[in-house]
């Protein structure tokens, strides 16, 4: 998952970015509200962590403008503002979650996964399709109950497709979910990873929609 971090404190921001990356998130970090609002509108992210006390544009105004423009990206507000009125204002203003600093990094990761899961209509954390089960927290994959070893990119690509099950995702959308700023993207990277996933899992798991992208069929409810 590719996460936008909007935090002006350099030490805290560096720690949050490192901690989330250790949990498998791709993290882009900006340090002011204007940059945060611009990136939130880009459509490049799975979720965002937003501070409120930001230079340039206050975090609540960033959130207001994003929601007013129709942005539905899951946003977790992470702030030192701990008054009940602040929490109510943040949640009523469009935040999907409101967390007071300091926060345990593993709890933060769990909250982000929960936000993304709900945003994609997933009830359980375990993603399943055609005998394949993916655990976002443990970063493990099984096929018919047997573990399958995937590279980091293969796992992230499979997760993006399983979260979006039933939807066709373009190569550009998949690249956005795999790579953060400064990471080199080879022109055929998505195709190579999908080829490997089909070999390691099952050929029919991922369907190519010519000229559009790739999809995994949504598993019908039991």
UniProtKB/TrEMBL annotation:
Is DNA-binding there in the keyword field? yes
InterPro entries found in the cross-reference section: CheY-like_superfamily (IPR011006), OmpR/PhoB-type_DNA-bd (IPR001867), Sig_transdc_resp-reg_receiver (IPR001789), WalR-like (IPR039420), WH-like_DNA-bd_sf (IPR036388)
Q: Name one GO cellular component term.
A: cytosol
Q: Which biological process, per GO, is one annotated for this protein?
A: regulation of DNA-templated transcription
All copies of the Response regulatory domain together span: 2-116
Task: Please name the SMART domains in this protein's record.
Answer: REC, Trans_reg_C
List keywords of the entry alphabetically: Cytoplasm, DNA-binding, Phosphoprotein, Transcription, Transcription regulation, Two-component regulatory system
Give start and end residues of each DNA-binding region. 124-218
Per the record, residues carrying 4-aspartylphosphate are: 51
The molecular function GO annotations come to: phosphorelay response regulator activity; transcription cis-regulatory region binding
Q: Where in the cell is it found?
A: Cytoplasm
Query: In terms of domain of life, where is this protein from?
Result: Bacteria
Any one Pfam family match given in the protein's UniProt record, by short name: Response_reg
Which intervals hold domain OmpR/PhoB-type?
A: 124-218
PANTHER family per UniProt: REGULATOR OF RPOS, TRANSCRIPTIONAL REGULATORY PROTEIN QSEB
Record protein name field: Winged helix-turn-helix domain-containing protein
Source organism (scientific name): Ideonella aquatica
